[in-house]
C-alpha cells in the first residue's frame, strides 16, 4: 500500500471517530423540542433565522440565527415555514430540522 493511500485511510478513520465522539457527547446532554417560524434563510452561511417559541427550562421566545447539523435542509425550508428541531443544553445548533405538521 502506498503512503498516500494509507494516509487517506487513516484520515477517514479519524473523521469517523470524531463524528462518533460528537454524536455521543450530545447523548449525555438534556434535549429539548424546538418549535418556531423561519424568518430568513442564509444559504451561504448555512444558517436559519428563526422566531422560536419558549422552550421551558432552556430559552425564552426570541428571534435568533441558528447553525444546522445538516445544511441540506436549507433546500426544503423557506421563510414562513413552521419547523421543529432538537436542541441540547449549551448548544445552539438545530438538530434534525424538519417542517412541522
Amino acid at each position: 500500500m502506498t503512503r498516500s493511500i494509507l494516509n487517506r485511510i487513516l484520515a477517514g478513520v479519524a473523521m469517523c471517530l470524531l463524528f462518533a465522539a460528537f454524536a455521543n457527547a450530545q447523548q449525555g446532554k438534556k434535549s429539548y423540542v424546538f418549535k418556531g417560524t423561519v424568518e430568513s434563510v442564509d444559504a451561504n452561511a448555512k444558517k436559519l433565522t428563526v422566531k422560536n417559541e419558549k422552550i421551558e427550562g432552556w430559552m425564552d421566545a426570541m428571534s435568533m440565527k441558528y447553525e444546522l447539523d445538516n445544511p441540506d435542509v436549507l433546500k426544503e425550508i423557506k421563510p414562513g415555514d413552521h419547523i421543529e428541531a432538537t436542541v441540547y443544553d449549551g448548544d445552539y445548533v438545530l438538530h434534525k430540522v424538519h417542517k412541522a405538521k
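The mean pLDDT is 86. The CA atoms of residues 73 and 97 lie 7 Å apart.
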